[in-house]
């Protein structure tokens, strides 16, 4: 089975490194330079003190034809629009597409895609891209996947052949799966990014913990959550288990990169507006993060 | 006329330097060391490139007897409780007391004071303490004063004798005077302290400006403000006129000092609670600042 991976950021490189142990992988990069680097050097995967090199074909994204049996789309949500236009202009209809974006803002885009089977995934690995061909697998986790449209036969065949080191777990309900992750991201990401603190500080500092709980209540109200206490306990566990981690949004802000704030809080604010509910805390945090992005000249 | 000044921070030193040109001033310090320094060196006032030395008597606060005709209390709001206990344990009842604290949290404390005349003031000068006896007058402004209790005769005599360089302006309504300043402080101070930006950024960055306007609306609702547009325009002008200034709360956070958050947002949150109004944005900002204070070990 041939597998295509679109996007060679930390998640794209991580998936390419593991999947190429079993399948023939082509990774599609934004720039021709990065494709050339990967073709020359392979993808170097660092996991603890262990280093492995995977030989992977790389091509610039302009060369993607959609012919692989499965294509994994590992770009950020804010880069997705241009990929979708590309999909809908392919000369063939692609068979199986797996989308790994954070948040839920991309769901409405997926309904416009012409493809046989569409899956969504939620990645629980920690990965840090060191340079254009080297990635550090610094948080071992799993990938949850679910069918968004069509059937999941091929994805099931694919995932059973992957090693236990890189597990893929099937979930029944794509909406619930993405919502679970969204709730966690919506609480942890903006607060850690604004406060510039590690995840653990949100539960160890009693004042920040108050903010966390109030924010969670506002999110619960917007999402009409039933099992509120379970969700809150999950957030608290994740803060404790990743106490010394810096969230992806904090790292984006520190590195002057755009954040995924629209995919996360933007989605919740739209949902609030459609229900005519007020969301003053989410709105404040949304604009604070948008302001931080603009402050550093990203929007110029 | 003898004048006492309690507190030798930036505002205490600034007032002592100007008032001692006309009146006999004793400044009361928290530590005996600072009193000794001031007695040895005088107070050095830097204003632009001009430097003047004022000879001022200094004593530790334990030596204060309340015998001066006017005593100006220039400590932070969170230090006020112990001063008030001191006032109420003096062997004589003091004649005239002028309180210069920010916010409005101190008003309820003032009703418990045994003194003939009580005034409150709102300082619009910028002053930066360089060391225990040197202060930089880096923002020339005025001091607004108003009668809180009793009559203002002596304060009027006092203020007419001060030079035009250091004007005191009488206001009719102490509540309105303090409220005006509170509104400005409640918007500018917490936002600049959390975002770690200069005042101008709050109006120049369109996303931060959204947060500013939403926050102002919540404050207006709590204070039942009538002339909302005027207040908002005042805040915008101040942000523009002090665009490159770092607010006092930002400086406190940066210097690991306690902030005046209780006097400012704490007061507004109490007011909201008494009216059974929700104040989600103020509450979030309040806990974020309290958390910042705790984070740096100030509460330990």
TrEMBL record, chains A, B:
<comment type="pathway">
    <text>Cofactor biosynthesis; (R)-pantothenate biosynthesis; (R)-pantoate from 3-methyl-2-oxobutanoate: step 2/2.</text>
</comment>
<dbReference type="Pfam" id="PF08546">
    <property type="entry name" value="ApbA_C"/>
</dbReference>
<dbReference type="InterPro" id="IPR008927">
    <property type="entry name" value="6-PGluconate_DH-like_C_sf"/>
</dbReference>
<dbReference type="Pfam" id="PF02558">
    <property type="entry name" value="ApbA"/>
</dbReference>
<dbReference type="InterPro" id="IPR013332">
    <property type="entry name" value="KPR_N"/>
</dbReference>
<keyword id="KW-0566">Pantothenate biosynthesis</keyword>
<protein>
    <recommendedName>
        <fullName>2-dehydropantoate 2-reductase</fullName>
        <ecNumber>1.1.1.169</ecNumber>
    </recommendedName>
</protein>
<feature type="domain" description="Ketopantoate reductase C-terminal">
    <location>
        <begin position="178"/>
        <end position="293"/>
    </location>
</feature>
<dbReference type="InterPro" id="IPR036291">
    <property type="entry name" value="NAD(P)-bd_dom_sf"/>
</dbReference>
<keyword id="KW-0560">Oxidoreductase</keyword>
<dbReference type="InterPro" id="IPR013328">
    <property type="entry name" value="6PGD_dom2"/>
</dbReference>
<dbReference type="InterPro" id="IPR013752">
    <property type="entry name" value="KPA_reductase"/>
</dbReference>
<feature type="domain" description="Ketopantoate reductase N-terminal">
    <location>
        <begin position="3"/>
        <end position="149"/>
    </location>
</feature>
<comment type="similarity">
    <text>Belongs to the ketopantoate reductase family.</text>
</comment>
<dbReference type="GO" id="GO:0050661">
    <property type="term" value="F:NADP binding"/>
</dbReference>
<dbReference type="InterPro" id="IPR003710">
    <property type="entry name" value="ApbA"/>
</dbReference>
<dbReference type="GO" id="GO:0005737">
    <property type="term" value="C:cytoplasm"/>
</dbReference>
<dbReference type="GO" id="GO:0015940">
    <property type="term" value="P:pantothenate biosynthetic process"/>
</dbReference>
<dbReference type="GO" id="GO:0008677">
    <property type="term" value="F:2-dehydropantoate 2-reductase activity"/>
</dbReference>
<comment type="function">
    <text>Catalyzes the NADPH-dependent reduction of ketopantoate into pantoic acid.</text>
</comment>
<keyword id="KW-0521">NADP</keyword>
<dbReference type="InterPro" id="IPR050838">
    <property type="entry name" value="Ketopantoate_reductase"/>
</dbReference>
């Amino acid at each position: 089975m041939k597998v295509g991976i679109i996007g060679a950021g930390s998640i794209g490189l991580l998936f390419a490194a593991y999947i190429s142990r079993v399948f023939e992988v082509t990774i599609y990069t934004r720039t021709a330079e990065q494709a050339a680097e990967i073709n020359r050097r392979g993808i170097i995967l660092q996991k603890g003190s262990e280093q492995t090199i995977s030989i992977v074909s790389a091509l610039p994204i302009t060369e993607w034809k959609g012919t692989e049996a499965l294509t994994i789309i590992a770009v950020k949500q804010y880069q997705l629009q241009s990929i979708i236009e590309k999909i809908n202009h392919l000369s063939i209809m692609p068979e199986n597409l797996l989308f790994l974006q954070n948040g839920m803002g991309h769901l409405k885009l997926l309904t416009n895609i012409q493809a046989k089977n569409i899956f969504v995934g939620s990645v629980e690995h920690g990965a840090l891209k060191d340079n254009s061909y080297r990635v550090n697998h610094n948080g071992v986790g799993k990938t949850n996947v679910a069918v968004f449209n069509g059937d999941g036969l091929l994805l099931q065949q694919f995932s059973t052949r992957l090693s236990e080191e890189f597990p893929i777990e099937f979930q029944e309900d794509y909406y619930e799966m993405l919502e679970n992750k969204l709730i966690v991201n919506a609480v942890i990401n903006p607060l850690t990014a604004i406060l510039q603190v590690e995840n653990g500080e949100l539960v160890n500092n009693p004042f920040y913990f108050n903010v966390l709980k109030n924010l969670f209540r506002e999110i619960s109200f917007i999402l009409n959550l039933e099992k509120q206490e379970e969700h809150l306990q999950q957030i608290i566990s994740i803060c404790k288990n990743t106490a010394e981690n810096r969230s992806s949004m904090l790292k984006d802000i520190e590195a002057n990169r755009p954040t995924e704030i629209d995919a996360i809080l933007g989605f919740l604010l739209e949902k609030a507006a459609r229900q005519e509910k007020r969301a003053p805390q989410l709105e404040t945090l949304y604009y604070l993060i948008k302001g931080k992005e603009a402050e550093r000249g990203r929007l110029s």
